[in-house]
Structure formats: structure tokens, C-alpha cells
């Protein structure tokens, strides 16, 4: 998925120390995506740029797209990251410059590792379901892996954990409670989609060296005493061995975590780099039709890169400011 902001801000993030256990509700913002999709951008946000290696989170839907084109994101470039496509409802057709053509369906993992350079498009198929609901996430690649050759993985059989009288957790990436996703990772992290039946009260096992955040997808749940409505992100910090969750109604959340990302990164538009010069070179290559390859089969032109910011990048930490605490 592309960042379609016409004036994307460039930021330097990553690095910094560990944060102890906190309960910071992080605000998102509404962002148009393509022709008819509106997303809630939850990471980066006003208070935080990363959670572990997770550096970008968009949550969209549930949207009624009957009679509508649905998601239509033209070919666009990526470098230095992995894209994670995750659906609760609907379908997304993925095409990329490697020649991959794959329809991603609910509870299936579409994982694209850009490495040094790749381009892709995402669209709702012509004959698509009535409802579209899901999330698109990015994972920053560590320096030693960001120059690797690009690849695409599709996993339709992911591990599921059940228990607690009403809990079901699908492990999207990494490992949770001894269950490991087949998706390739390049830093210690976890991503899981967890559903709760009404009346469930559980304690999720966590890694104390990881920092975590939860995104509420459906319903309302109480996470470590904080009640969350759909579309909200709660940053939890590090130093936790478990996480209490109570669901009085049927609800779902996404758990994201990982070791704090020690490297500083520059993230602008669809690029994750280490300097402004790298970003400028990548933009120039994309506009010249070089390096990123060609996506075949999409009905429409590729996205043009927005202008680079007029001001130079300024070093800033992985945390922008202290958000509201509870």
C-alpha cells in the first residue's frame, strides 16, 4: 500500500532507549487512499513513529463497497521495508514488478520484502465482496538486510492460538505463545490478530524486552485498564511479561511488538532509508523509470512521486513527544 499524501513529511526515527510500561493512547488521522477508500493512519502518529520495527499502520473499513471500485492503488515503489497485507473481510489483488499476481483473502498473509527496490499495485478485484476491512503495515528492514533482493510471500495457513474461554489469536508475523508464523522476518517482532468473545478476560503472554502496541479493530475491549474503541492505538512500552485484556462484548484487536529498533531511519513517502540523499536518489530513479521495475496488468498509470521537502532532514528520536497518558 502506498502513502498517498501529496506532501509527505520526511522524518528521522529509530534509535533511542527503551520505554518502561506505559499506557499512551495515540491518535490517528483520516487519510484518503486511492479513489474510494478512507484509512485511519495510526503509525506514524503525533506521538510515536515506530513500535519495534513496525513503522507504518493503516486500518481501513469495514467499508461497504458494493457497486464501488473499492481499493485502487496504482503501481508505486518501495525500498528498505516489508509490506504486510492483512484482511478481515474482502479481497485485495496484489501485482508487483517481480511478476507476482496474488489475491489475498481474509486471514491470509501477503508479505512483500522490498529490499533494495520493488514496485507493486493493490486493487479490489472486479468481482469483489461487499465489505472491505483490513490493515496495511510496514516493517523497517535492518541495515544488513535492506539491500537484499526483493521477494513476495503468500501464506494461507497461519497458526491459530485458542484459549481463555473465548480467545482466538492468528499469528501474522513472528511468534506468540510458542506459535510461529511462516512469514520471513529480519528482526525480533510479533504481529497477531486476536478476537475475544463477550465475557473473555485473559492475560496475553509478552516478551519483556519487546515494546508493544495494540490496535482495536472491532468492538470495544479493555486493555490494561484502558477502554479502547475501534480505530484507536494504545502504546504499551517495554518491560511487560503479560497483558490483561477484558472484553465485555465481542471484539478484536491487533497486537504489534518487537525489540526497539536501534537504527535511525529516514522515512519519506514509500521509502525507508538512512539519509535524505538516499531518498532523493530513489525518487529520481522511480520518476526516471529505473531500478524499481515495471508492474504489468494494472489498468492505469503508476503513481508520480510527490516533490521532496524544501527543508533538510533534522535528526529526531523514534518518539516525537509524550502523548496522553493514563
UniProtKB/TrEMBL annotation:
Record-annotated Pirin C-terminal domain positions: 192-291
Q: Where is the composition biased (Basic residues)?
A: 315-326
**Where does this protein have compositionally biased stretches of type Pro residues?**
303-312
- Highest taxon of source: Bacteria
Family matches, as Pfam families: Pirin, Pirin_C
User: Start and end of every Pirin N-terminal domain?
Assistant: 45-139
Q: Which region ranges are annotated with the description Disordered?
A: 1-30, 303-326
Family per similarity comment = Belongs to the pirin family.
Would you tell me the protein name for this molecule? Pirin family protein
| Organism, scientific name | Streptomyces olivaceiscleroticus
Amino acid at each position: 500500500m502506498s502513502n498517498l499524501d501529496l506532501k509527505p513529511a520526511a522524518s528521522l526515527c529509530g534509535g533511542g532507549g527503551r520505554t518502561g510500561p506505559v499506557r499512551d493512547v495515540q491518535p490517528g488521522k483520516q487519510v484518503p487512499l486511492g479513489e474510494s477508500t478512507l484509512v485511519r493512519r495510526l503509525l506514524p502518529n503525533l506521538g510515536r513513529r515506530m513500535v519495534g520495527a513496525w513503522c507504518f499502520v493503516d486500518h481501513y473499513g469495514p467499508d461497504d463497497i458494493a457497486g464501488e471500485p473499492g481499493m485502487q492503488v496504482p503501481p508505486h515503489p518501495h525500498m528498505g521495508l516489508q509490506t504486510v497485507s492483512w484482511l478481515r473481510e474482502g479481497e485485495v489483488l496484489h501485482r508487483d514488478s517481480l511478476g507476482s499476481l496474488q489475491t489475498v483473502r481474509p486471514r491470509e498473509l501477503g508479505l512483500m520484502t522490498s529490499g533494495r527496490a520493488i514496485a507493486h499495485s493493490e486493487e479490489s478485484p472486479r468481482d469483489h465482496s461487499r465489505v472491505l476491512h483490513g490493515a496495511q503495515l510496514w516493517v523497517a528492514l535492518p541495515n544488513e538486510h535492506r539491500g537484499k533482493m526483493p521477494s513476495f510471500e503468500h501464506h494461507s495457513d497461519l497458526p491459530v492460538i485458542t484459549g481463555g474461554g473465548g480467545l482466538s489469536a492468528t499469528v501474522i508475523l513472528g511468534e506468540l505463545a510458542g506459535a510461529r508464523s511462516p512469514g520471513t522476518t529480519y528482526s525480533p517482532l510479533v504481529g497477531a490478530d486476536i478476537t475475544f468473545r463477550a465475557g473473555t478476560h485473559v492475560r496475553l503472554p509478552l516478551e519483556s524486552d519487546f515494546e508493544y502496541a495494540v490496535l482495536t479493530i472491532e468492538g470495544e475491549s479493555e486493555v490494561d485498564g484502558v477502554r479502547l474503541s475501534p480505530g484507536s492505538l494504545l502504546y504499551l512500552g517495554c518491560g511487560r511479561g503479560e497483558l490483561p485484556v477484558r472484553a465485555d462484548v465481542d471484539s478484536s484487536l491487533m497486537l504489534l511488538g518487537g525489540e526497539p529498533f536501534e537504527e535511525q531511519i529516514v522515512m519519506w513517502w514509500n521509502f525507508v532509508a538512512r539519509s535524505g540523499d538516499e531518498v532523493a536518489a530513489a525518487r529520481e530513479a522511480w520518476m526516471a523509470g529505473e531500478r524499481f521495475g515495471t508492474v504489468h496488468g494494472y489498468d492505469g498509470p503508476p503513481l508520480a512521486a510527490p516533490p521532496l521537502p524544501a527543508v533538510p532532514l533534522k535528526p529526531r528520536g523514534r518518539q516525537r513527544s509524550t502523548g496522553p497518558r493514563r
